[in-house]
Design a protein that fits this description.
This protein is of the alpha+beta class and 564 residues long. The chain has 25 helices and 18 strands. The chain folds into 5 domains: 103 residues, CBS-domain, CATH 3.10.580; 168 residues, Beta Polymerase, domain 2 (2-Layer Sandwich); 109 residues, no CATH class; 58 residues, no CATH class; 51 residues, no CATH class. It has an 8-stranded mixed beta sheet with strand order 7-16-15-8-9-12-11-10. A 3-stranded mixed beta sheet has the order 1-2-3. A 3-stranded mixed beta sheet has the order 4-5-6.
């Protein structure tokens, strides 16, 4: 029995009590295969190299399976890791882990003798934040989440809201700014989706191979739409090759969160009434949200799925998140690996489309460009001195076009700007890599665009009809390219043509010119063209003036004997 007033010793766990001693040290120049063999020989789970580098054995296993066995093992390691002594107290260690360290190394003087890995963080509750979702959209989402939790509990499953919705909730974004709701069920997600569809009156699209479903058109009891809802079975993923679509199998919520792209998206909120609002955060995403830090879950994240690079650019641009050092190392590794033959061009092109759907796509594109990620389109892609200027010009042009109500394919324009200053072979290979066969996204001959821009710039008397004549046969992609390459006068001409010039028509119809004496046949089209040019130049304004002009033209043809 405790004695009143007696001073009891306080047991403070030290690093030595927390560490995993299954650690070996390896030379940094060793390849993955050698480091992995050494780890297997002694049953080590962590491979370390002084001063601040360590890799998990599971990451070495994955790299070896993907054909990276001859790469330096440090390529798949965590770098810049903190190190503590055996006697460092638990509070100091936990502070380092909360600060974003995935592993804390433990040293006995200079030798690494152990490692402490990040573990699930203390449970917090987001119930208060959920209850503060306001407005019709916020209340609809709250009703949906409560309904999902009750349905899951009634059928003996656990259900969670995950991913971007949880991230945006923690960022304090309004309901109208938040990501769509993603639900994960520890159980049969598709069967759960069918029950939720019945409850909401929505339409369910099932993707059985992945154990996922999409619910659309659901409404609350008062008729408010709940928006798009993705539903999935909690799962683990295995990537047979870099860039491949994953093979999936059922798992628990923590493993499901561990398959995700970034720590800020690897959080879940429990929806069951008995656990309502409880946060699951095994990867420290909450601290990264607070620090506005963008952190991958492991060094092979971008090799596993290179499209995550584009997602990272979207999150960085939209949410103001800053990539950490681990993100940049993972990015550099993915670019060095280079070839992803099983990554389809359609998936790469889809990421460009998603970027262009952002409120500020050009900032995200600038990040992708600056990171060197377009080498995934073609290894010879080079960022030139004009690259950023082209993006800035495309941004200006798209803003003008939308204001003028000119239809412009945003992703096609972005692709044009990104490829404009590449050599023709590189541009062609990029387009083939993106599986673009033709249409608005097809490559534009930069030389032809520059030539057209020069022609406009050197044009003599700038009559509207001459400008229209020069631009009328040109397809839109080449017009946009000439705008990017042109000077102020040439850009004004192209804008005028797109806004007014190419849609200008005379007041007279074909029947009108026939009534004025033009025989039916090819001469009718010529007469209409002449009237259009006269109108463009302001030389005719009324129907009477057009009739008079046609009469004079007919007389001239008759005099030369060409009226037939």
């Amino acid at each position: 029995m405790a004695k009143a007033g007696h001073a009891y010793p306080q047991v403070v766990p030290r690093a030595a009590d927390l560490m995993d001693s299954r650690v070996i040290t390896a030379q940094g120049r060793w390849p993955v295969d050698r480091a992995l063999a050494a780890a297997r020989a002694v049953g080590a789970s962590i491979i370390a190299a002084d001063p601040k580098t360590a890799a998990r054995r599971e990451d070495l296993e994955r790299a070896a399976a993907w054909g990276l066995g001859r790469a330096p093992w440090t390529d798949v390691a965590h770098a810049g890791l903190p190190a503590v002594s055996l006697t460092t107290d638990e509070i100091a260690v936990r502070r380092l882990l909360r600060g974003g360290a995935s592993i804390v190394l433990v040293r006995d003087v200079r030798r690494v003798v152990g490692a402490i890995e990040a573990s699930p963080h203390p449970t917090a509750s987001l119930a208060g934040r959920l209850e503060r979702l306001h407005g019709s959209q916020g209340e609809a989402r709250l009703w949906l989440l409560r309904t999902a939790g009750k349905l899951a509990e009634a059928h003996g499953h656990a259900a969670y809201a995950v991913g971007g919705f949880v991230r945006d909730l923690m960022l304090g974004r309004g309901a109208d700014q938040m990501a769509d709701v993603d639900l994960v069920v520890e159980g049969d997600g598709v069967a759960f989706g069918r029950r939720l569809a019945e409850e909401t009156g929505g339409h369910l699209v099932v993707h059985a191979a992945f154990g996922t479903a999409l619910l659309e058109g659901g409404v609350t009891p008062d008729g408010t739409r709940v928006g798009r809802v993705d539903i999935a079975t909690a799962r683990r993923e295995r990537y047979a090759q870099p860039g491949a679509l994953p093979e999936v199998s059922p798992a628990g919520i923590d493993e499901d969160l561990g398959r995700r792209d970034f720590s800020v998206n690897a959080m879940a909120v429990a929806l069951l009434p008995s656990a309502w609002g409880r946060l699951h955060d095994p990867w420290g995403g909450a601290e990264d949200v607070a620090a506005r830090r963008l952190r991958v879950l492991h060094p092979l994240s971008f090799v596993e799925d290179p499209t995550r690079i584009w997602r990272g650019a979207r999150y960085a641009a939209r949410l103001g998140l800053r990539p950490d050092a681990g993100f940049r190392r993972a990015l550099a590794l993915a670019i060095r690996v280079g070839l992803y033959p099983v990554l389809s061009g359609q998936r790469l092109r889809a990421e460009l489309d998603l970027v262009m759907d952002e409120a500020d796509p050009w900032r995200a594109l600038g990040l992708v460009l600056g990171w060197g990620a377009l080498k995934l389109w073609d290894a010879s892609y080079r960022v030139t001195s004009r690259s950023r200027a082209r993006l800035a010009a495309a941004r200006v042009f798209l803003r003008w076009a939308r204001g003028a109500r000119i239809a412009v394919d945003g992703p096609g324009l972005a692709l044009l700007a990104l490829l404009f200053d590449q050599s023709r072979p590189v541009a062609d290979r990029c387009v083939r890599r993106l599986a673009i066969a033709g249409g608005p996204g097809a490559p534009v001959d930069a030389g032809a665009a520059r030539a057209l821009a020069r022609r406009l710039g050197s044009m003599g008397p700038r009559r509207a009809s001459r400008v229209a004549e020069a631009l009328r046969p040109v397809r839109d992609g080449l017009l946009f390219g000439a705008w990017l390459a042109g000077g102020r006068a040439g850009r004004r001409d192209i804008e005028w043509f797109l806004r007014e010039g190419r849609s200008e028509r005379p007041l007279s119809s074909g029947d009108d010119v026939v009534a004025a004496g033009v025989p039916r046949g090819p001469l009718v089209g010529q007469a209409i063209g002449i009237l259009r040019d006269l109108k463009l130049d302001g030389r005719v304004r009324t129907l009477d003036e057009e009739r008079a002009a046609v009469t004079e033209w007919v007389k001239a043809l008759a005099t030369k004997g060409d009226l037939r």
